[in-house]
Amino acid sequence: MKEEALKVIESVLAQGRTAMVEYEAKQVLKAYGLPVPNEKLARTLDEALKYAEEIGYPVAMKLMSPQILHKSDAKVVLLNIKTPEELKEKWEVIHENAHKYRPDAEILGVLIAPMLRPGREIIIGVTEDPQFGHALMFGLGGIFVEVLKDVTFRVIPITERDARKMITEIKGYPILAGARGEKPADIEAIVDMLLRVSELVDELRDYIKEMDLNPVFVYSEGEGAVVVDARIILKVPEDKGP
């Protein structure tokens, strides 16, 4: 697990970068068994067409560039591409949008991803405090985190008991528990994700500065969860510095 993640991390640092693009961040998460979609990075149009066929239409397209970390602002996330003809057209559009937003943007490729069915949105984050070290954050996504700041924190590493308490102590917990006759969300999948993120950061604490998994779609009980978008900011370890 750690070795696979380190290969990705060291490759990014070797390029003089500390901000991982979404594809790279998800490769690190995948190494620790976190649920990520079946996505592929296409560097050419032919690869994009091949991957879309393998994944199955409709697909989403997300341009990967170290200079464009806020993809929505640059209009480089295009959804619900239904046919090869539409993909060819959108391939031109997504590159044009990138160059308009940042003419100097280095383009690593375009992520071809399945269109995911919506679930209840959660956010999992990691920050580093100079005094306490790395802390894990959990909350509901969307308006709950943006407006209500309904989140909870624990110092890493956490236990299973910590993970379960984090989930139940947010004000929005009834939404996960199944308010108004809805099926409960897959709480076990959330517990597993929190523990895996804790393990990842604990083992790679010399490298991880910040992490943001937002949104994560959580499905009904027994149906799992999936990381829709991910961001990781690295730090250069002291023993690896110049």
TrEMBL record:
**Which keywords does this chain's UniProt record carry?**
ATP-binding, Ligase, Nucleotide-binding
Q: Can you tell which superkingdom this protein's organism belongs to? A: Archaea
Q: Which residues form a coiled coil?
A: none
Per the record's keyword annotation, is ATP-binding included, yes or no? Answer: yes
Tell me one GO molecular function of this protein.
metal ion binding
> According to the UniProt entry, what is the EC number of this protein?
6.2.1.13
The ATP-grasp domain, residue ranges:
26-62
- Keyword ATP-binding in the entry? The reply is yes
Which reaction is this enzyme known to catalyze?
acetate + ATP + CoA = acetyl-CoA + ADP + phosphate
- Give the UniProt family note: Belongs to the acetate CoA ligase beta subunit family.
Its subunit composition reads: Heterotetramer of two alpha and two beta subunits.
- Entry protein name: acetate--CoA ligase (ADP-forming)
